[in-house]
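User: I'll paste a sequence; please echo it back and then give the predicted structure.

Assistant: Echoing your sequence first, then the prediction.
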Amino acid sequence: MRGGSIAVVGGSIAGCAVALAASRGGAERITVLERADARLRDRGVGIALHSDRFDELRDAGYVTTQLPWAPLSRRVWSARDGAAEHGRVIGEQPFPFRAYSWGSLWSELRRRVPEGVSYRSGTVVTGVEPQADGVTLRLDTGEREHFDAVIGADGYRSVVREAMFPGTVAAYAGYIGWRGTSPDAVDLPSEGRDAHNIVFPGGHCMLYRIPDGAGGHLLNWVLYTAPPRAEDLYPDLRTPTSLPPGRLDSELTAYLRGLVAEHFPPYWAARVLRTPAETTFIQPIYDLEVPRYASGRMALVGDAAGVARPHIGGGSVKALQDAHALENALVAGGSWKEVLETYDAGRRPVGAAMVALARRMGAAQVENTPDWSAMGRTEFDAWWQAQNNGSERRSGFGGHSIRAG
């Protein structure tokens, strides 16, 4: 399959990866349409890539060893134990991950988008009209542009997905992620090589260091729990949204800070509570599974194609793998129909498996938490394996192998 025009709606990590994939796959004209003006807003959040998945994506040409990263080797699960500074360890696991900042990964992918690709910031797609010979996009300027194929890389509120499957939207999982980054990343246990999960009734908080882009590190954390009286505080949580710094209700903030003070070991409570308010925000957690990854001359990648709760640590991996699979389909296919059917057949089962695993993990780690205080390491190991269907190797934690799709 050579030639043709492709529009990529969305210019974030997934969109830049797809632009690279389409160029390698032989597309003649590639246009990326990103609604944000200039540089995408970087909230400083962390991204962790499983080391095996990183190696596969490096070999495929989608990531590079030149990016600043922080090595992680273990994940330590701890519960508060009276005044014990670091609490009581209830479980330890191998955790071969590489920690990045979102901004550095996006910047590298943006840099690698070929010069011949038209990357248009501040361009809002308001409508998607499929036709027999391609797809026409309506823009907020009133213009209409026609392409041979359109790839939706526009996240969990995708306009491309809405055109493909009207009414298919992400469903609120019933809880939130309270996220933050702090410069308070010195003197961490094990020289910062561990990811720490602090557990409490009704949720947990994961903390690990990430590069700050200036040769140092930040402490990145996300706390998962159900908000109090969610419908009274934020009745729009059931509609896909996010709550950036400055929009956090004072009652919700006070509730979350009180939860940390009561349930976290003193060392970790201090780290979270000292995080600057301007670097904290709320991320409601959603699920989404689509009927297909392609329809007509349209296809979906990344969060547009499916949203798995963040507990599996594989969202960015999946987006990059989606792009790689699309590249392979373009190289091998002889028609748009063949290309997109091949892409769908390879990626849809992987995406569905990741959504299912993430739901199980969310149920066990947030919605129906065990009595952490009664757990020892044996009980913890059994609890963890139950979430993973007895085999972490098969489960997809950290993302499935690139060979799975």
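The mean pLDDT is 91. The longest helix spans residues 336-367.
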